[in-house]
Design goal:
- The protein is of the alpha+beta class and 525 residues long.
- It has 13 helices and 20 strands.
- Helix 6 runs antiparallel to helix 13 and helix 7 crosses helix 13.
- A hairpin with a 2-residue loop joins strand 15 and strand 16.
């Protein structure tokens, strides 16, 4: 199953370079602190220096958790999972540091001509452990395009700063900060984490480093290089608009609406709730997968982030309580961390439809296979093969944010390979028990699931205890006869451009270019 390395192997580098997004997990040391997960999907922001060193360009968002946690303890984990082709998950465990916008270190990595609008820091990671695992539970998605909304809104905010500075040339020691400028946004929203830890420091009022004058033209370059399909979401559908004139009309409509929280001209600040609102429940129920982050309390411990994508495993009880069926994997980090401190965060991000990210912050507990609590929630006829625990979460904070950096993906199908793998191991246990007839201590065949739990699920990578009951349970598996269709790994590998007509591409491109030019002239008046 899982493998660990002391550096990034070549084949892992190749896998990473094919991915269109990644996830970042960090955590404070306090037992009351909130573990964070963030989705990152802007093209060209992740970089590999060598087998021990990676960095990414951190763009402005609704919070500053990553920087705050790195400032406190340095722990960070990056996750990549393959949505297309063979299943694969990669985790880069490391120690991170950051260089804020305007520092000499930042400028050495990101010259003005390559900087993305909204860029606020370089996150540098010294990778000391690399974990690979099967990714059998990650659904098939087909990549459609990167979103540009985050870049557009950030560039507009930077343009406000540029124009304010040009209008007030006398300001040298402290440049003006318009309310709709990016620097003012940093001061308002990026100087401390939700737990009160300090975030950006160089962005405070004494910061004088100016944005590049290239930002004004950069803003419109994102419009002109927009994806070939303009995304108009009607009941979750992505519609192509082949007409030059229709393209221009829709483009103008989408880029000038101010009332929609999804289409605002400014970076959308995150919102927090004490419970799960109804509209958030509706969003969650539409998603095909989610991510889980936990962390030990030790400053040397490894923060964990896991992808979950088996259909029918996530459940909402009420506005404060959710649970999911935890399937057997290559490790047992989540259970181990919950046993130690209870902190857990669940993340959902929308790949289709309006951009959206939801985080459920809570305290978690678990019920292992064979316990009365487990059996009360998961009956044999609804249990998934490989199920080892119920993860129950008391949600005390819900965070929503824009999701402007999450790419467009089209869901194709769920994988069944994890279920198939687990069903075979459970069948080995069933057959061994039938042959032995033992009652007090069921036999443990070498290729059975319970023996797998003994080998892989009894302690975390930091040595914290994991499962203690399930592997010894006398409850029997009841998966005999379940058959799963083989995964088709070519399902999401069809070329997107094969669907398009050259004349359509030319007409659409001209429409976008003309509209962008007219919009640019309008804004520069």
């Amino acid at each position: 199953m899982g493998k660990f390395y002391d550096e990034i192997p070549g084949y892992v580098m190749a896998m990473i370079k094919k991915q269109h997004m990644f996830w970042v997990a960090t955590a404070p040391l306090s037992t009351d602190g909130h573990v964070n997960i963030s989705s990152k999907g802007v093209e060209g922001t992740f970089h590999i220096i060598d087998s021990h060193t990676v960095w990414y360009e951190d763009l402005s968002g609704s919070g500053v958790e990553t920087i705050s946690h790195l400032r406190e303890n340095g722990r960070i984990t990056i996750l990549f999972n393959a949505f297309e082709g063979p299943p694969s998950i990669v985790r880069l465990f490391g120690r991170g540091k950051f260089y804020e916008f305007g520092t000499s270190e930042y400028n050495a990595f990101i010259p003005p001509e390559t900087r993305h609008p909204g860029s606020r820091a370089v996150i540098m990671i010294d990778v000391h452990k690399v974990g690979t695992s099967c990714g059998y539970a990650v659904p098939f998605y087909e990549f459609r395009s990167h979103r540009t909304r985050l870049l557009e809104t950030a560039a507009k905010s930077e343009l406000a700063d540029i124009e304010a500075e040009e209008a007030d040339n006398a300001a040298i020691c402290q440049p003006p900060r318009p309310d709709d400028g990016l620097k003012q946004y940093w001061i308002q929203h990026n100087v401390q984490s939700i737990d009160g830890l300090p975030g950006m420091a160089f962005a405070r009022p004494l910061m004088t480093h100016s944005f590049s004058d290239q930002i004004a033209s950069t803003l419109w370059s994102y419009f002109a290089s927009a994806p070939i399909y303009t995304r108009v979401h009607v009941q979750g559908t992505i519609l192509p608009l082949p007409s030059f004139s229709l393209t221009s009309i829709v483009y103008l409509a989408l880029t000038n609406i101010r009332c929609s929280p999804y289409l605002s001209s400014r970076i959308t600040m995150g919102k927090f709730y004490d419970e799960i609102p109804g509209y958030v429940m509706a969003m969650i129920q539409k998603q095909h997968m989610f991510w889980v982050a936990t962390a030990p309390l030790s400053a040397d411990g490894h923060v964990n982030v896991s992808s979950k994508g088996v259909e029918g495993t996530f459940h909402i009880i009420d506005s404060h309580t959710v649970w999911y069926e935890d399937l057997s994997g290559s490790g047992v980090e989540t259970i181990s961390h919950l046993r130690e401190n209870g902190r857990i965060t669940i993340l959902f991000n929308a790949f289709e439809g309006p951009p959206s990210i939801v985080r459920l912050f809570g305290r978690g507990k678990f019920y292992e296979f064979g316990t009365p609590e487990y059996n009360a929630l998961i009956r044999p006829e609804t249990r998934h093969p490989g199920s080892r625990a119920v993860i129950m979460i008391d949600v005390h904070k819900v965070g929503t944010s824009c999701g402007y950096a999450v790419p467009f993906y089209e869901f194709k199908s769920h994988r069944t390979r994890l279920l198939e793998f687990a069903a075979k191991r459970e069948l080995a246990d069933i057959e061994a028990e039938e042959a032995d007839g033992a009652v007090c201590e069921p036999p443990r065949t070498g290729n059975g699931l319970k023996q797998y739990w003994v080998q892989e699920s009894t302690q975390s990578i930091d040595g914290l205890p994991g499962m203690v009951f399930g592997q010894h349970s006398t409850d029997k598996f009841q998966t005999r006869g379940k058959v799963y269709k083989k995964d088709d790994e070519n399902v999401s590998m069809k070329g997107f451009l094969e669907q398009l007509d050259v004349r359509f591409i030319l007409g659409f491109s001209l429409g976008v270019a003309a509209t962008a030019a007219s919009n640019f002239l309008f804004y520069r008046r």
